[in-house]
Amino acid sequence: MSESVVIVAYDPRWSVMYEEEKGFLLNLLGDALAAVEHIGSTAIPGLGAKPIIDIMAAVRRLADTEACIPALARGGYEYAPEFEVVIPERRFFRKGPPGARTHHLHVVELTSEFWDRHLLFRDYLRAHPDVAEEYLQLKKALAVRFAADRPSYTEAKTDFIQGVVHKALVAREAARSIGGG
Question: Please, is 175 exposed, middle or buried when counting C-beta atoms within 10 Å of its C-beta (0-12, 13-18, 19+)?
Answer without folding.
Answer: exposed
